[in-house]
């Protein structure tokens, strides 16, 4: 069956784009068909897939202009299919702001038939907490919602003031049962990072993914060289971390965990 995974940060800067790109590459290395979609206005996912920086094409303009959605697709040198968000003019940006919900409803419909039964769809969302009502169609159609956070005071504060508030989507059962939190940019040498990781493990329990992604300068270096982490630094800590995350994804959707699936 197709697996749709929503990946989002809580406030920006957590590395959700990096997670999306490197998880897609790690799944491809396990012979899994993947399709990544950048829904962030920064339009940075394409750089992780070796797209020239001057290439500004993307899916958002196609959807707003009712043109062929599939024409915005690209493929990385590693074989990952992806849809960049694209660069918008001022006029297009205003159009996007006023029609956001319709745009994402259309996106959900366009993505559903793509990729076949065994495809992984990784959808990267922007400003998740503020715009979750706009993303409802994607959230409803998702199999798992992965919220990326870093083990620090600001994210801990956001968890309690936004995610764990009674008005939050997290208190709706249909979303809570498929929400997972992923710790990124963990610094094992920093006391504060270790302390907040321990607090998150105690408070989030089964909602926290067992895979911890470490901070690694190899990620920045691979991006600067417009190549994937798995090619630039295959023996790095982060490369091993993302491979472990890919294995967890396969395990999570295994027949033992989802006996009713066709996998």
UniProtKB/TrEMBL annotation:
SUPFAM superfamilies in alphabetical order: P-loop containing nucleoside triphosphate hydrolases
Coiled-coil residues: none
Xref: Pfam families: CBP_BcsQ
Name this polypeptide is given: Cellulose synthase operon protein YhjQ
Organism this protein belongs to: Shewanella surugensis
Lineage: Bacteria, Pseudomonadati, Pseudomonadota, Gammaproteobacteria, Alteromonadales
